[in-house]
Amino acid sequence: MLKNKLLRTTLIAILVTVALVLAGPFAGGLYYTGCGDRYVEQEWLDRAVAHLIALSLRCDDPDLQGVLDYTIRRYHKIGPWDVMVMPLANGRSGWRTLGCNCPWCPGITIDPEVLTYPISDGAMILTHEAMHDYWPYIHPLVDARIHKMEQFQEHNKWLRP
Ligand SMILES: [Zn+2]
What we know:
It contains five helices and three strands, in the order αααβββαα. It is mostly helical. A three-stranded mixed beta sheet has the order 1-3-2, covered by helices on one side.
């Protein structure tokens, strides 16, 4: 009897915790559904994706090309739980948050400031956030790949619009 009550309490605690963790990003997606058309953001995203396509066509590293193709395929559309452009909170110690990808919620969020950057930088931020979809989602893995990606982009800087 006590064992069943303990099991039930544990399961309820896990479900409530999961619901609370999921609530924030999903609420952001719901909010974004009511924000109307996003022509400026979609135009920016189209240019960023065009840059990624140009890079992918010249990429001979299967790992980087896989990341580029995944980003192009998954994140080419502005919308809730796809690519959302919304102001992001800054981190501690003066860190500027330019993008966010919560692995437990579909889609990524880009700070509007990124839309003022050169399109090649914006495309790299988009790619960085897409890399957080790859298990185990952590930064050391993302940083190593994004460093390789930036070097590859530097070799192809003549592609920059
Ligand atoms: Zn990151």
